[in-house]
Write a structure and sequence with these properties.
MetI-like fold; mainly alpha; 11 helices
Amino acid sequence: MDWPALGVSLRLAALTSLLLIPLGLWLGRTLALARFRARPLCEALVALPLVMPPTVLGFYLMQGFGREAPFGAFWASLTGTTLNFTFSGILLASLVANLPFAVQPIQRAFEGIPGNLREAAWCCGLSPWQTLWRIELPLAWPGLVSALALTFAHTLGEFGVILMVGGAIDGETRTLAIAIYDRVQAFDEQGAALMSAMLLLVSFVTIGVVYGLSGRSRRRHGR
């Protein structure tokens, strides 16, 4: 087992989930409730990482993180370092690549809440903020947990985007998925099998959590 690579993967997955869930909550709820002409375009932009090849997304992010690019130059002026081949770079890349996994389950959860519940809450004197915390979030909780599980698991197994932006620097950008690839290249099938089994187990547990919450939500609503 490549423990430093596992540590990088876990730290990356935890930080990506921690940063994306609040953003996913805001953006998912906005897309679920708001009615504006540009909504399909916004939804398409959120979903774009799902259909783009990871190496293509990684290439564009790598270009955007370079010192010659506006964002990369801005980052360099603030920190004095570049984003490419750093943990900060793969973290930003992971936020972009995993955005749909955080937003879409939350959006679907809020879309499933009947609008008359919000109206009833307002008629009872609850403010929009109180309605969110006391009515909407408890009902959308399965979507939040699904978003957290999917974001964490997908980040843990991300390969193409991370490799393009961060390379494979030990203790910095070399994740468990990259370590598996390196073990295969070195003909260490036993080591690759052990690490692959760990990622397979995480993926299986994640899918089990998602489907379990979905089934519980359907039973609760009598579907």
